[in-house]
Design a protein that fits this description.
Elements: E1 8-11, E2 16-19, E3 28-37, E4 43-45, E5 48-52, H1 56-66, E6 71-74, E7 79-85, E8 89-93, H2 95-104, H3 110-126, E9 133-135, E10 152-155, H4 157-172, E11 178-179, H5 183-193, H6 201-208, E12 214-217, E13 220-223, E14 225-227, E15 240-256, E16 265-277, E17 282-287, E18 301-313, E19 318-325, E20 332-335
Helix pairs in contact: 3-4, 5-6
């Protein structure tokens, strides 16, 4: 079963899971519960009512209490993860297919119309093929509400970079429906994320205020994911192994931010200074979470805290160390 970032799967129990990354075990999918059947929820699909769960801790807690068999210690990632056996997957929702459905629909609600208009606008700027664009999030599985976000996905490095440049132009055009977050909107985003990433508001604003992958389209929140295409993903599960070697806080200069717009994202770093925790020759900061995209630019200095991993690439007979962000509320990366 080929799955990647932005896909959503429904298991035999009716739970909707967000697929994370594009490298998965042969018989399992790394995915975290997002929408769970719950009579007190405010979303419905057919006769089933769903509740949305947000933080990583809440997702793990739900599985540990209800479906502990999905909480797996993964020896390759040296991490406890949510992994769904492929035999338990009832349905796989793909963003490209949902966008195709929206384009063919005779009737659409307001959110569906706005999502299609947003992607049509981006396409008109850079002419990305429809087959390399999709819709994720609640709209993908038809569990959206009138106030839901728009969650587009673009596939392929070149397509992503062209759309990124288009977004920068659109955000600078006062007549464009694409707008950066206002200070008031950033305050709301900060309150929403604080439980999951606890950093001071001033640091939050300095990084989030200049991002283009998130913002407002026609008074709706949007977050765009840029995902490498299948032909650009050269690693198979097990070819690269990760070893947890500690936790650290560092100060470092960004040497290369060319992978910062993708999910997963990464930053090559240099001139690393250890402020706390485990000391290893760290060469990279990485994250599987979209909120750490666009966090810093080449030549900027950052302070970051997260898990230190030894990355062992068997095929290239190479190993190095990286700082991984996003597993704990204490993980962060801010401008120094």
């Amino acid at each position: 079963m080929k799955t990647r970032e932005g896909d959503i799967l429904r298991d035999l129990n009716g739970i909707m899971f967000d697929v994370k990354g594009s490298v998965h075990p042969l018989s399992r999918v790394i995915a975290f519960p997002r929408f769970i059947p719950n009579s007190c929820g405010n979303r419905t699909q057919g006769e089933v009512t769903y509740r949305k769960i947000y933080s990583i801790s809440e997702r793990f807690k739900f599985l540990e209490e209800k479906f502990p068999q999905y909480v797996i210690y993964d020896t390759i990632f040296d991490e406890v993860l949510c992994e769904v056996p492929t035999e338990n997957v009832k349905h796989l929702y793909r963003p490209v297919g949902r966008l195709k459905e929206l384009r063919r629909a005779r009737e659409s609600d307001e959110l569906e119309k706005d999502a299609l208009e947003f992607l049509d606008l981006l396409k008109s700027y850079v002419n990305v093929p429809w087959s390399k664009m999709g819709i994720s999030g609640s709209l993908l599985v038809k569990l959206h509400t009138p106030s839901s976000d728009i969650d587009p996905i673009i596939y392929g490095s070149e397509n992503c970079r062209r759309v990124y440049e288009a977004l920068k132009i659109l955000m600078q055009d006062p007549e464009s429906p694409v707008k950066p977050y206002s200070m008031e909107e950033l305050q709301g985003l900060f309150r929403f994320r604080f439980e999951d990433t606890k950093i001071p508001f001033e640091d939050f604003v300095r990084t989030e205020s200049r991002k283009v992958l998130q913002g407002r389209f026609k008074n709706r929140d949007y977050f765009i994911r840029f995902v490498k295409d299948w032909g650009e993903i050269h690693s198979e599960y097990g070819a690269i192994r990760y070893e947890n070697v500690g936790y650290a806080k560092i100060k470092a200069e960004i040497e290369d931010d060319s992978e910062a717009i993708f999910t997963p994202c990464s930053y090559k770093i240099k001139n690393v200074e250890f402020l706390k925790g485990t000391h290893f020759p760290i060469e990279e900061i990485a994250s599987f979470r979209g909120r750490f995209c666009e966090q810093a630019r080449t030549s900027e200095v950052v302070v970051a805290q997260g898990k230190v991993e030894r990355v062992i690439d068997k095929g290239q007979n190479h190993e190095y160390f990286r700082l991984l962000l996003g597993n704990k509320p204490s993980d962060y990366m801010v401008l120094a």
